[in-house]
Amino acid sequence: MRKGPRLLNSIFNFALPARRPGGILRAMSQPIYPRSPRETMCGWMHLPRYIDKIRLHLAGQLHADYQPNFGKGFDAAWLRATGLTHEQFIDVVKGTITDGQVADWVAKNIQKTAAEKQAHAEGMLNYPKADDAAMQDRLKQRKEANGLAQRDDIKTFVDFIDVDEKREFGVR
User: Fold this and answer.
1) I need a labelling partner for 73 at 20 to 30 A (CA). Which of 39, 62, 64, 171 fits?
2) 10 Å Cβ neighbour count for 73?
3) Going by C-beta distance under 8 Å and a sequence separation of 6 or more, which residues neighbour residue 33?
4) 3-state secondary structure of 11
5) Angstrom distance (rounded) from CA 67 to CA 159
6) For the whole model, what pTM was predicted?
7) How many other CB atoms are there within 10 angstroms of residue 47's CB atom?
């Protein structure tokens, strides 16, 4: 007797979604979320997320919601802090298979102090600053557009990203 998806579906009475090329069981319109901007690699906040976005882009699976800011925003802040261009770092990631290989490249080629990495992280974790009215308004608009206006605990874009991508964050 065949023990494939049909048999399992009939035994457990559930339906599997259609299999996409590459074996990914995900609806085309459902985004694949990159890691949280809070995650770190080699002491760099946001680096794992940026790598995820690049890998998704290279595979043709970076969701349309991420396309306008790809290489901009927090990606660009990380690039400025490291002295790289978006194209240079895409080439680095393209030439690797694992995160460990990217981490090795970063450790060898980006010589920044722990204080510089911490300043980058603090800049992200405190963005927008309380006195930046334009960006505070933009965060407010994003929260309202996503049904999160009542969430007073969302004070930064990093907070917003985590909640928007179905992750919660610790008490501030």
Assistant:
1) 171
2) 16
3) 165, 166, 167
4) helix
5) 20
6) 0.81
7) 25
Q: Rounded to 5 degrees, what angle do the CA atoms 120, 123, 58 make?
A: 60
Residue 103: both structure tokens together: 């981490």
Contact 128, 156 (CB under 8 A): yes
Residues paired with 45 in a beta bridge: 40
Q: Please answer whether residues 82 and 112 qualify as being in contact, where contact means their C-beta atoms are separated by less than 8 angstroms.
A: yes
Phi-psi group of 22: left, alpha or beta (phi > 0 → left; psi -120 to 50 → alpha; rest → beta): left
Q: Of 30, 26, 87, which Cα lies nearest the Cα of 54?
A: 87
Q: How far apart, in whole angstroms, are the C-alpha atoms of residue 154 and residue 169?
A: 9
Q: Tens digits of per-residue pLDDT, 83-137?
A: 999 999 999 999 999 999 999 999 999 999 999 999 999 999 999 999 999 999 9
Residue 124: partners with Cβ closer than 8 Å, 6 or more residues away: 37, 45, 46, 74, 77, 156, 157, 158
Instruction: Give me 146's structure tokens.
Output: 């996503």
Share of the chain above pLDDT 70, in %: 81
Distance CA 89, CA 68 (A): 18
Tokens 């339906």 sit at which residue?
15
